[in-house]
């Protein structure tokens, strides 16, 4: 079974119908790992045991309502694409199935390799779109919370300190007024950094052009952009010879800037040491690694840190929005790659990410 095969659940009490579905899948270009169930109860139990990408459920199950089954599957497993199958070909049934959460509908009388391939592809596409919409809704809600908290606080501080400046100037106390002015500048800078970070995060989804990119040049550009921060921290940022990849240079520069910046921010050593290298994987492409000597990340947070607005307790006193690594994840996934990390608390972290080769192998 191919690692790219999707997981399909077939819920139908008729053995002949189940064989028809399996035969159509084998004759199609689909790569599916099929699990069969003869009742809704069996189907729900199977979903509790493993995650399915798609389910085909019969409209007429003995003693059960197929439409009710669609509702049950959709409510409990909203990420799964559900297809209603029936021998009747009733358009009213199809309409009601869609209202209940079905991604598509197929008639058993017209079921063959071509129609099944089209229906499953359509259902998976709809499910992916719905997942993206839900994700964007969650991000918008998080944006609202972040703006209410991280922008409202410094804005209120600016208003307060501006009033105090006016009071001190009226009193003729220019020294105190200047001190409050510094506070105003710091809060304004904080707001500008937050707005810039939000913009970079949203721009990671923008339409971009992909071409052959020399990662040595990307590394040099990212390092040059962070030169002031590198000098301020007395950091060492080095790399082995790097390959060319298929990607977008500006987004890859942002990716490295975020990783290097994080490494310096979360380092408690006298000097931050960051090293980058790449190894070739015949199947995946180029596997890059960025190793640092920072405070490290607990294993329980390996996935959490890539979620938007996540700030670990260890970084509570460090200025940040919780969008840096989330932006890295967006950029890498735009390049059809993956990103992950390994760490030893107190001894540093290594971030890994995969990018496609500049010239794909034949």
Short description:
The chain has 362 residues and is an alpha/beta fold. The protein contains ten helices and 14 strands. A hairpin with a 2-residue loop joins strand 4 (60-61) and strand 5.
Task: Please describe what this structure looks like.
The chain has about 350 residues and is an alpha/beta fold. The protein has three domains: about 5-135, Rossmann fold (3-Layer(aba) Sandwich), CATH 3.40.50.2300; about 135-205; about 210-355, Histidine kinase-like ATPase, C-terminal domain (Heat Shock Protein 90, 2-Layer Sandwich), CATH 3.30.565.10. Helix content is about 50%, strand content about 20%. The protein has ten helices and 14 strands. It has a five-stranded parallel β-sheet with strand order 2-1-3-6-7, with helices on both faces. It has a five-stranded mixed β-sheet with strand order 9-11-12-14-13. Helix 1 crosses helix 5, helix 5 (about 115-170) runs antiparallel to helix 6 and helix 9 runs antiparallel to helix 10. The longest helix is centred in the middle third of the chain and has 59 residues, at about 115-170. It is elongated. It starts with 5 loop residues before the first strand and ends in a 7-residue tail after the last strand. The relative contact order is 0.08. The mean pLDDT is about 85.
